Each structure stands twice: as C-alpha cells, then as structure tokens.
Amino acid sequence: MDRRTFLAGTGVVLFAAPFAAEAQRPGQILPRIGFLGIADAKSAAEPFQAFRQGLHELGWIEGQTITMEYRWANGQAERLPELASELVRAKSDIIVVSGSIGVQAARQATNHIPIVIAAILVDPVSAGFVASFAQPGGNITGLASQYEEVVTKQVQLLTEAVPGLSRLVFLGYKEMRASVQATAATAAGTLGLKTRLLEVREVADFEGAFRKAREGRAQAIHVLPSPFLNAHRRLLIDLAARYHLPAMYEFQEYVHDGGLMSYGASLPDMYRRAASYVDRILKGAKAGDLPIERPTKFELVINLKTAEALGLTIPPSLLGRADEVIR
Fold first, then answer.
1. Cα–Cα distance between 231 and 293 in angstroms, integer?
2. 3 state DSSP class of 236
3. What's the CA gap between 324 and 102, in Å, rounded?
4. How is 163-219 classified by DSSP, letter by letter?
5. Quick one: 94 and 113 in the same domain?
6. What are phi and psi of 104, to 5 degrees?
7. Count of domains in the chain?
8. Domain CATH number, residue 48
9. What is the pLDDT of residues 6-46, one digit of tens each?
10. Is residue 60 within 8 Å of residue 80, measured between CB atoms?
11. What pTM does this model have?
12. Domain hosting residue 222, numbered range
C-alpha cells in the first residue's frame, strides 16, 4: 500500500470520529480547539494529521487534555462565515484556520477568540489581518507563506519540465488577491512567456477554463494557490489529464493525487508548526504577541507516471533536484 492510499484510507477513521473511545474525567472542562476547514476531512487528511501529531507531541491529546470542534465547508467557500460563527457559539478557546477567505470568515466571527493561521499564501499585513509580522496585535497569529519568492521558481521549473514552453495559462479563484496575479504575471514575463489568466467562480467553471486554455493553444497551466482550488484538486487533476495540459501546483498533495509537479511550502510542516501556537496560547500567551512565522521547508515533487501519460521526458537535472519522485 503506498503512502497516498494509506492516508486516504485512514482519513475517515482518523477524522470522522476522532478518539471516540478516549474518556475524560467526569466534570473536567477541557480546552476547546475549533478547526475551520474549507475542504473535507479526507482531502485535508495529510496536513491535518501533522497538526494533530504536533499537538500530541506537546501533550495535547484529543479527549484527554483538549476537545476539538470540527467544521468542514466541503469545498463550499460561501459556508465559511456561518461555520466560523458556529465555532464561536460552541465556545471555542482557539480557532485554527487556513487560507485568506477562511481567516476573513473567522475574523468577522470574533475579535476576541485567538485565531491561529495554519497556512496562508498572501501577506497577512497587506491583507489587513495583522499589524506586522513581529507584533501582529489583535487576536490573529500563525504562519504565512512567501508566495512572491516561490512563484518565480515555480514558473522556472515548469519551463524546464516542458521544453519550448512559451504560452502559459494561470488558473485562479475569484477571491484571489490582485497581488498574487501581478506576481505570477511578472514572474512569467521575466522568462519571456505569453500568459493568460482564467478565473473560476465555482466548480462548474472548471471545465470551461480548461477548454479555453486548450483552445488558446496553451502549452501548460499553472494552478495558482487557493484553498478553494485545493479542496477540489482531484477534479483539476482529472481535467489537466483530459485536456493534455502539463500543470504546476503549489502543494505536494496535488502530485500525490496524480498531478504532474508541485513546488512550494510543505503544508504538513506548516500545520505541525501551527500546533506550537495553540500550545503557547493555551499556556497563557496572547495571540497578538506571537510573531507571524514563515515556512522553512519547501519541496519539489514530480510524478513520473503523469509525465509519461503527457508524453513528457523530465530532464535528469530536474529529477535530481526533486525532494520526491513518484514513479
């Protein structure tokens, strides 16, 4: 059984009825951690398992020393505000969330419950979530990625994987910030690529976007970072295969599910580090006093099975730099 099959197979057991057999002492009131996810438990199994492992290593065990409240949007971003409000009504002591739309939903739901960002790809300062990286202020802290530094490397790697690449399509979600679009376009421009941005507002728009990309003679597609798109990654991967488009993604989960290649911060590593924020807050620290951290682990993952299906021969020089190669 391979790693991806194991995670998918165990996701329901681990997350649908977590630690139901563990009992707490009668009358004991445990800290309550609210978890707000845009995807579902199965899709988010790998990073969320890392988060729970991080908590466990710090002595926070579900059903024994903490309780957990889960709210999954199942890929429906419009549900996030109400789900965040449910976590507030459930008297969560901390809310853990990822993605700018999730953070915004939690922020609108409460200005006093600490909010821990497990992963976000936009600058939380320019987005207005925190005052600064060093002193966030308010009730929000956590981890923020360095997308501006990552996207140039992503485009460069894609040009190495697809010989003669000159026409590239960026696929983005409607809530994507203009800074992300501008950064991606600048990165492609420095490499002399002609680009086109296609935005999707809902799942029903996905196939139309791939059709437009193919009709426009795109040679590859770059799926821009978005928790919404990540929640529906299996459909995006299927469409890339159907329309015979090599694709670059932000996270390794795409490649484990059959995508061609990814380069970016490790989501499991960011979620594991998010557990330390929960630990410090439960021990008395104020969220606004805890500096925003950046990811330290970046990974290049390549799926050779997908490359072969697309008729691509990945150069040995690129394979040699990969952190993981799926054969």
1. 24
2. helix
3. 30
4. TT--EEEEEEETT--HHHHHHHHHHHHHTT-EEEEEEESSGGGHHHHHHHHHHTT-S
5. yes
6. -60, -40
7. 2
8. 3.40.50.2300
9. 444 444 334 333 433 344 455 578 999 999 999 999 989 99
10. no
11. 0.86
12. 147-265+299-326
